Amino acid sequence: MTRAGGLPQHELTAQLLRITDELADKFHGVFGRETVERFVDETYALLNENATVKTHLATLTARFAKQRLHDYGRAQGLTKVEVPQVLFICVHNVGRSQMASALLEHHAFGKIAVRSAGSQPSGSIPSQITEVLAELNIPLTQAFPKPLTDEVVRAADVVVTMGCGDSCPVYPGKRYLDWEVADPVGAPLHRVREVRDDIDRRVRSLLSELLGD
Questions:
Q1: Which CATH number describes the domain made up of 1-81?
Q2: What is the DSSP string of 49-87?
Q3: Could you confirm whether the keyword Oxidoreductase appears in this record (predicted)?
């Protein structure tokens, strides 16, 4: 029997079918079932390719597929856009982009939609990253590395890159910022705090600009 993501194939198929059913119901009237099924299958394949630990892959597939469908609907003009959306990109999506997205969500109080992705997502979020954010009462319990996909870039109003080179697609009408921020992964804790504070200053400035404060 073949196995994928740590599950027997029939169990995996059943879980992906359940996810498709739930998302097809949630996005009823926006997307047909075939579109939802395509996103679920593609999302699982993307995460399975890059995941180091695959124990919770089905759960992550459900969360990421839901986000991708929201972004696809936003990019296609099929869903109502209520707030600006910011996308943070770094290489592995375990350090700078995760810190930036967590900090912006913390300060924005729902006034900004926030996404993060990696040009080459891999690994897991280091304990030093979660620790320095916890010092500001920002939990990072639900975060995981996500691949950079077309619809998340199309849905963004502002795309912030941090050390990922030319891997991000460029679309007209988007605002692109390149933040030269040190990589905190593998650095001692005091340096990670310095990176956190650097990103925090930049995030606060961007938020003020976007909200016109």
A1: 1.10.8.1060
A2: HH-S--TTHHHHHHHHHHHHHHHHHHHTT-S---S-EEE
A3: yes
